[in-house]
Each structure stands twice: as C-alpha cells, then as structure tokens.
Amino acid sequence: MTAVRTSKLLTSLAFASLLSGCAGQAAPVITGLPPVAVTASGETAPVGTGRADAADDPAIWVDPANPGRALIIATDKKAGLHVYDLTGKDLAFLKSGLVNNVDVVGDIVVASDRNDGLNAHLAVYRLDGAKPALSALGRAAAGSGEAYGLCLKKGAPGAPITAALIVKDGTVRVGTLTVDGTPRFAVEWEHKIATQSEGCVFDGDTLYVGEEVGGLWELKQDGRGAAARLVAPIDNQRLVADLEGLATIDHKGQRYLIASSQGDNAYAVFRLPGVEYVGRFAVTAGAFGATSETDGIEAVAGNFGAVYPDGLFLAQDGDNAPKAQNFKLVRWDQIAAALGL
Predict the structure, then answer these.
(1) Is residue 1 pLDDT above 60, yes or no?
(2) Band of residue 225 on the pLDDT scale cut at 50, 70, 90
(3) In sequence order, what are the beta bridge partners of 230?
(4) DSSP state of 15
(5) Which DSSP string corresponds to 139-165?
(6) Phi, psi angles (nearest 5°) of residue 118
(7) Contacts of 299 (CB under 8 A, 6+ apart)
(8) Plot region of 321 (φ>0 → left; ψ -120 to 50 → alpha; else → beta)
(9) Would you give the end-to-end CA distance of the chain in angstroms?
(10) Helical H runs in the chain?
(11) 276-284 and 36-39: which strand pairing?
C-alpha cells in the first residue's frame, strides 16, 4: 500500500482511538467478508512510470465494426494514456501529463486532467481504433478544484456526451461535454459529498459515486442538485476503505455494479437497480499475479474470442513488482460462476 493510502487508513476516525492506545504497534489488518477466488487470464504491459503509484484507471473500447474486438485505454497518472490490445500489448502512448480517470464513448476518450491542481479540466481525445492512436482535441474547463474522478454516460452515437467530474474534495459536477471545435463542459447539476471521492459510473440517469472512506452513493438529478442516498456504506464486511473504482456489467439479463474494496484487495458485487449485495471476489495468483490495492476497474459484456468468451473484468494492480504497475484481465464468466450469478 502506498504511503498516501496508508496515511489515510491510519488517520481515519474509525481507528483513531485504537491507534492512540497502541503506539508502536502495527495497525490491525481489516478484512471484509471472505471473497471467492478467481485468477487473471491476462495482463497489460506495465505503465511507463516505474517505482511509483502510477497506473490508475482503465476504459474499454469495443470496435463498432467488429464487436469481438476491443482495446484498453488506461492512464499512467503521472505521464499520459496507454492503448493496449486484449493480449496486453502496449500499442500506443500519448504523453498527457497528470491524467487520472478515463472513459470512452464512441471514438471520444475523456480523462480527468490534474495538470492544474487549482482548476479542473477534462482532457478530450479522439481514438483511431484502426491504427490505433489517440489524438488530443483539447481541454474543457470544469470549475475550481483538483480534477479526480471521471465517468461518461453511455448514449447513442453522435448524441451529446454527458460527463460526471468528481473533484477531489467530493464535489460532483454533471453536465454536457461538447467536442466539436474547442471542447466545452456545461455543468447542469452539482452535488457535494462530504469527503474525498473518486470512482463513478452511470446506470441510465442514475450516477453512482464512491466516497473513499464513506461508501457508495446513489445520485439522481433534482433540479440544479441531486437527491443523494448512501446505498452501501464502508462496513468492513462488503466494503473496506478505500472504496475506489466502480464499473457495471450486464449478465443474463441482469445488471451488476462492481466496486473496488481497496482496503482488503477485493471487489464487491451488487445487483441493480436495488443495489442488493450478491458477493465478493478476489483476483488471486495463478498464471498471472494477484491484484492488490486496486484503483480503477472496468467491465464489459460480449464475446471477445476464446480467452474472453463472455465478457471481461479489468483491474488496476497496485503491486506488480518487480515491474511497474499494470492492469489484470479476468474472464467475466469465471467471476459469474464463482459468485453463482
């Protein structure tokens, strides 16, 4: 675990009284409900920044002309964006500085841009899936604060893009991103979560946001603000702080939300729209290494060949020693079977 994450864990209010009486002793290891075990079927090449907490968040682009082909777009949050194929080969890299979370709709790729720590921006790119290559279209101003989390609402090709930007202090800004000409972001509604938040994902018009030490929030637009409901708190059973990446996937006519329970290297799964807990899984060592300290995750349904015949799950791996951090790929059908979905 990085020094920053350890510091947050050790100073959280939940453990303050215990630690004050146990000076000099190691902090207790917190684990949630026992997860079922799965193993990775692949991994990406490491990001370019070594010896640092650098890999952060992935997105998956599915080729509209060939739905069995997909690419992974992922951030090195200290350097820029990588494009990988499903074998994990690093096909392209675009230097972009401090980009944190990333998502894709059609051929438009958007990342939260932290290059200005005082003023948030959305960095916008176009993906040429055939080459493949990314080209920068510009940056859209998104208000004050440090840009952190980012997710896009999936919509019809050519439709206006709805984006959610999460400022590091927990401010959520949702609006329309225009990409013709200079990119522009028009905020439609805003909501403040009490503490640091990052992971987010849309399910239709509902936005789910992860408050790192608080839990999973459900936000629904209510005028210029939102009706907010804490639907899965950090309880050291289903979720162990920090709550990080969020993703959704369809399976046998049912939609599920996956959340990274970073504090105990596991992933919690909830059934939507009721956010009903169905189980937890962990990616353990096998042909490829285990995942730990996961930040961003992604999942997508579909048939991507013999290795991923029923979709895949993608997770940032915070400890890929001796190499730099990377992303692990897991067959979704194996996860579903292990959870009995």
Answers:
(1) no
(2) very high
(3) 217
(4) H
(5) EEEEEES-EEEEEE----TTSPEEEEE
(6) -100, -25
(7) 247, 248, 249, 258, 311, 312, 313, 314, 332
(8) beta
(9) 31
(10) 3-11, 13-20, 332-339
(11) parallel
